[in-house]
Q: What sequence folds into this?
């Protein structure tokens, strides 16, 4: 990573000791990237009317923004071997909609071991190192419309873009950077901060409210590719947008109760209407 793109260890304590929400007071790792357009986003409040609502668009990463092509799973396998000495193909793990902390606990349970704070910290550091290698071997592919969507979000002074992901902070950054879309998000909440994606979504919303500096944050839109993302949207009263570029098809996402189901993120005018609050839920959509 170059200077200005470092993940900083900001505490000697672990944020993953119990899975509780400890990130606000004791983050293990903090996003410290401040690219120019992110800095511009943080100054938007000065250019807009105080009290005017600010929209929030939260995005999942894997299956939604990009296809990591198995890099995450391979990195997890290698990190396990390195940290714990287990030759485990973790074929019993589904990463779709999962969080890294929850996956780590499932694997350790399987081996009759416990995820201590020290082990979690060591594992997540190794995971990031392995992911650097696996993404270099096979770079992620951006899904259709993502670059255009992120450009739309960056161009609108009344919308904040954020991440709600099961990836740890460093792993999120590595995937986004490998896909060429790092630094496009004002805030995020990550899979090292909580094992439960619903709590990760709540963390992201709280961070957005702090960024909004007293302006109402609405509407909130959460875009993801699994029923877990839809549940996370429900947990924060967000509009649940499900995209069928991951492992779930349109029918599955519709059955899981998404407000809007889209085949991909190419329909920019429809997506814009969502964060402008101009599109009511459409339970009976066409595929
Ligand atoms: Mg996903």
A:
């Amino acid at each position: 990573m170059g200077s200005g793109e470092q993940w900083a260890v900001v505490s000697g304590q672990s944020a993953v000791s119990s899975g509780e929400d400890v990130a606000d007071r004791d983050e293990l790792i903090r996003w410290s990237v401040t690219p120019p357009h992110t800095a511009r986003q943080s100054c938007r409040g000065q250019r807009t009317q105080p009290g005017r609502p600010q929209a929030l668009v939260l995005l999942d990463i894997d299956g939604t923004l990009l296809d990591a092509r198995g890099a995450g799973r391979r990195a997890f396998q290698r990190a396990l071997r390195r940290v714990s000495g287990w030759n485990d193909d973790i074929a019993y793990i589904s990463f779709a909609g999962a969080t890294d902390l929850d996956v780590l606990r499932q694997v350790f349970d399987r081996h009759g071991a416990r995820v201590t704070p020290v082990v979690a910290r060591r594992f997540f550091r190794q995971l990031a190192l392995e992911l650097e290698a696996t993404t270099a071997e096979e770079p992620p592919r951006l899904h259709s419309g993502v670059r255009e969507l992120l450009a739309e979000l960056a161009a609108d002074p009344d919308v904040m873009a954020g991440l709600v992901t099961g990836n740890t902070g460093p792993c999120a950054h590595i995937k986004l950077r490998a896909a060429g879309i790092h630094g496009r998000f004002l805030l995020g909440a990550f899979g090292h901060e909580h094992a439960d994606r619903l709590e990760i979504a709540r963390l992201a919303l709280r961070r957005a409210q702090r960024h909004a500096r007293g302006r109402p944050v609405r509407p909130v839109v959460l875009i993801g590719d699994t029923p877990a993302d839809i549940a996370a949207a429900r947990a924060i009263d967000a509009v649940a947008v499900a995209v069928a570029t991951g492992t779930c098809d349109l029918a599955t996402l519709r059955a899981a109760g998404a407000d809007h189901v889209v085949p991909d993120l190419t329909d920019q005018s429809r997506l814009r209407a969502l964060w402008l609050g101009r599109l009511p839920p459409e339970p009976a959509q066409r595929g």
User: Anything to note?
Assistant: The longest helix spans residues 117-137. DSSP finds ten helices and ten strands in the chain. The CA atoms of residues 68 and 140 lie 4 Å apart.
